[in-house]
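Hi there, hope your week has been kind to you so far. Would you mind checking whether the tokens look sensible for this chain? I owe you a coffee for this, so here goes:
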Amino acid sequence: MLATLVAEAFDRAGWVYEEKYDGYRILAYKEGNSVTLLSRNAKDRSATFATVAATVGTLPDSTLLLDGEVVAFDARRVSRFQLLQRGGSAHTFAVFDCLYHNGKDLRRQPLSSRRLELEAAIGKPREHLFVARRLAQNGLVAFSIAEKKGLEGIVAKDSSAPYEEGRSRKWLKVKAHQEEEFVIGGSTPPRGARKHFGALLLGAYRGPDLHYVGKVGTGFSEQTLAMLAQRFKPLTRKNSPFVDPPRGEATWLAPRLVAQIAFEEWTADRKLRQPAFLGLRDDKDPRDCTLP
């Protein structure tokens, strides 16, 4: 179940408001002593997030299906996607839904009932596992708290809604700061002391067409520059993947890679202002990167 992005915070009777986490969406399947962690594009992440899998394995129930986000927290207890990318930070599973519990399929039950099942299954917070935090009962107050804490935003959920596969209007997300996924369609030549490339050329789809939305030249370490250059080699092509390519010298790439980007705002001509590279997303399909 995927949340739909809306422009402004709101307060609505019967809705609850949770922290929006900045990590990898994961479904955790527990059957007896066996635990499998799957990403939203069905990649097995059990080895990548081994500490999370081991912790889910300690839960007493014989069968569980948990939905949540694997995150890495900074010193202020704010989840940061780039910490996951860099490695070295502890992985924590913020669980916000329970779809199956001890032989019961809960997907047609309301969220309020699923939350009770989730809390019963997990119990007290563990080192690598906790129930997703809810903020104030009022949605406007919840969003204000998220802004003050520096969170990515909030997710508002209809507590009476069943679990629906796909994008839903029963879950709505409101962002406190701009962060989104974009397709990498090319790169510019390196300048000065920088090696490998200068900036990434980014795009987003509208229908079948990939539109250029700007370039990002900050947020890279030397290691990241080298890693990306290796990933680009088999994707190099002669023609631009953009329907509206930028001017200037560029190396064009097949639109296969997705980057997570933080930025200040959209300009009037649909370009990113002050973008910064956070990392690659191998759990997102490029076609899911669409213009707002």
The chain has a mean pLDDT of 94.
